[in-house]
Structures are given as structure tokens and as C-alpha cells.
């Protein structure tokens, strides 16, 4: 949470397994006068492999190093450790900067994967932010990262001093334990979808699993990572919704849950978007029946649900 000229801006991180409705939920919230969804809706550089959170905290896949706490009175040991940590952070930052300009600045793809960061911020502004962070990289990493993101959000085009800034990178939930350190007042909305439909959608992409059974493993891994990360987030700052409830099973109740979670009043534009765009047809509910309804797939899904239920993940 941070203030722009006395105005408090609260990040709302929307996420899930991917192909679960994150984008359309961000579009829904963007219709409210007190919410601005990022442009592009997925900035990608924050909660992604090799992204900004990995610069600040280290790779998500890296094994944590167990170290004894070093007193500042053991100055040489303390100084060497700090210097090593700064050096590693600088190396990660240089790799991140290269990736940002080559992978995330311009993306030749439709939303949510495109169009890239250039749609929402001037290049010179982002260059200044990166230069400032590089200059201050020896300082407190969390404080500097928070300043970077505060300025990034402020400099994005189209802002009108809304209370909330929403962002829809699916990996937000797997990174929620890190995001909550940067933004202690952040809100998290986890949107889930029938995993069978998620897998059917993933199989049409060139970046996900190649088979339906690989998709089951992929989904289970993501759900477990999300569950583990969310243990660090206060329960009252997390909302779970499902795409099926939002468009089919209990659309009004789910819609109201979102408003109540963010303490927003209903508005005609947002309600009209929900009614017109969040439909069963647009959600492609049940598509898996035509595309991957095999006994092997059904058995794999049943076993996954048993494991996740046993571990109290679903």
C-alpha cells in the first residue's frame, strides 16, 4: 500500500493456474471507477521466472541457504556476506534487465500475452526506474523494490488516482509469499477453473504440457505451489473464486463476493460487463468432454483430486 499525493493505492494481484480466467477478471475489475487494471494486464516482469521478484529474493527454485546470523560486530564476516549478496543481486538484475527489454517490452501477441510493457509506460521512464534501482542496489532490497514498483505503477499510462491497481499474471499466487513482503496491504484473488477445462485449453498452446496426462501433473504442481505460497498471506487478504461460479453456478453471489472483498459499491459499467461478457459460452465450460474425455485422463484427474483433498489443498 502506498500513497500518491495522499491517495492510497492498493495492489490487487489476480492469479491462478493459467487459463483459469485471470484476464477476464482483471477486465471486469477495470470497469469499476476505483480500480485500474494494469496495461498490459500481465506486466510479466514481476512474478515470473527470472523476473523482478527473483532479483530481490533469489530464484524461486533455488534451495534456501541456511546461515548462522552474523553480528555486525564481526565486521569482516558481515561485510563479506553483504558484498556477496549485493554482487549476486546485481548479476540477477543485469540478467533481468536484458530479459525485460528482449522478452517483455514488446510482445507480438494478443492480450493477455501481449502487447508488452511498451503499451503502458514510456521507455525513457522505465529506463530511469531501472537506472535508479541499479544505483541503489546496495541498499535495503525490499525497500528499493517497493520504491521501484510504486514508481512503475504511478508512471503507467491512464491512471486516474484509483484506489486499486490490479495485475493478472497467473504466477502471482505462486509468488504471493514474496509479493506480500513488498506490499503488506496487497489483496490476492485466486481464480480457479475446472482443471479439465484448463488442461484442454493448455493443450492448444505452445508453452504448456504436450499431453493431457502431462497436464494433470502440471496443474497439480501449480496448485501445490500456490497453496504453499499463500500460507504467508493473511487469510483476510485472499479471496477464492471459481470461473464456473462467476459465470454459471452462482454468478450474483460470486460477483458480490468480489465487491465485498474490495469494499466496493456496485457500478453499472462493471455489472454490464459481468452480464454481457462473463457467460458460459465465453468461458467454454465443459470443453474437455469433446477434446480429452478418455478413461486414462478421468482416472488421473480423480487421483489428483484425492491427493489434493488429502493434503487439504482443495
Automatic annotation (TrEMBL):
Domain of life: Bacteria
Protein's UniProt keywords contain Plastid: no
Coiled coil segments of this chain: none
SUPFAM superfamilies: P-loop containing nucleoside triphosphate hydrolases
Record-level Gene Ontology MF annotations: protein-tyrosine sulfotransferase activity
UniProt keyword list: Transferase
InterPro entries the UniProt entry points to: P-loop_NTPase, TPST-like
Name listed for the protein in its UniProt record: Sulfotransferase domain-containing protein
Species of origin: Actinobacteria bacterium BACL15 MAG-120619-bin91
Amino acid at each position: 500500500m502506498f500513497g500518491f499525493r495522499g491517495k492510497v493505492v492498493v495492489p490487487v494481484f489476480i492469479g491462478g493456474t493459467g487459463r483459469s480466467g485471470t484476464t477476464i477478471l482483471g477486465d471486469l475489475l477495470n470497469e469499476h471507477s476505483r480500480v485500474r487494471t494494469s496495461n498490459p494486464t500481465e506486466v510479466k516482469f514481476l512474478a515470473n521466472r527470472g523476473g523482478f521478484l527473483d532479483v530481490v529474493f533469489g530464484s524461486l527454485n533455488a534451495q534456501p541457504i541456511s546461515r548462522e546470523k552474523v553480528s555486525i560486530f564481526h565486521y569482516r564476516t558481515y561485510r563479506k556476506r553483504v558484498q556477496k549478496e549485493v554482487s549476486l543481486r546485481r548479476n540477477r538484475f543485469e540478467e533481468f534487465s536484458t530479459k525485460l527489454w528482449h522478452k517483455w517490452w514488446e510482445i507480438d501477441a494478443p492480450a493477455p500475452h501481449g502487447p508488452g510493457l511498451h503499451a503502458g509506460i514510456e521507455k525513457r521512464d522505465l529506463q530511469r526506474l531501472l537506472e535508479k534501482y541499479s544505483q541503489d542496489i546496495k541498499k535495503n532490497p525490499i525497500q528499493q523494490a517497493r520504491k521501484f514498483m510504486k514508481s512503475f505503477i504511478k508512471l503507467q499510462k491512464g491512471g486516474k488516482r484509483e484506489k486499486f491497481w490490479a495485475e493478472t499474471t497467473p504466477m502471482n499466487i505462486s509468488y504471493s509469499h514474496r509479493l506480500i513482503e513488498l506490499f503488506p496491504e496487497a489483496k490476492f484473488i485466486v481464480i480457479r477453473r475446472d482443471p479439465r477445462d484448463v488442461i484442454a485449453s493448455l493443450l492448444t498452446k505452445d508453452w504448456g504440457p504436450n499431453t493431457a496426462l502431462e497436464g494433470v501433473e502440471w496443474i497439480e504442481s501449480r496448485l501445490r505451489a500456490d497453496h504453499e505460497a499463500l500460507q504467508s498471506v493473511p487469510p483476510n487478504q485472499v479471496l477464492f473464486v471459481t470461473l464456473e461460479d462467476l459465470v454459471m453456478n452462482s454468478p450474483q453471489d460470486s460477483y458480490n463476493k468480489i465487491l465485498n472483498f474490495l469494499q466496493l459499491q456496485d457500478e453499472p459499467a462493471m455489472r454490464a460487463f459481468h452480464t454481457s461478457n462473463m457467460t458460459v459460452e465465453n468461458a467454454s465450460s465443459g470443453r474437455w468432454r469433446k477434446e480429452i474425455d478418455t478413461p486414462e485422463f478421468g482416472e488421473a484427474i480423480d487421483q489428483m483430486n484425492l491427493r489434493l483433498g488429502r493434503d487439504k489443498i482443495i
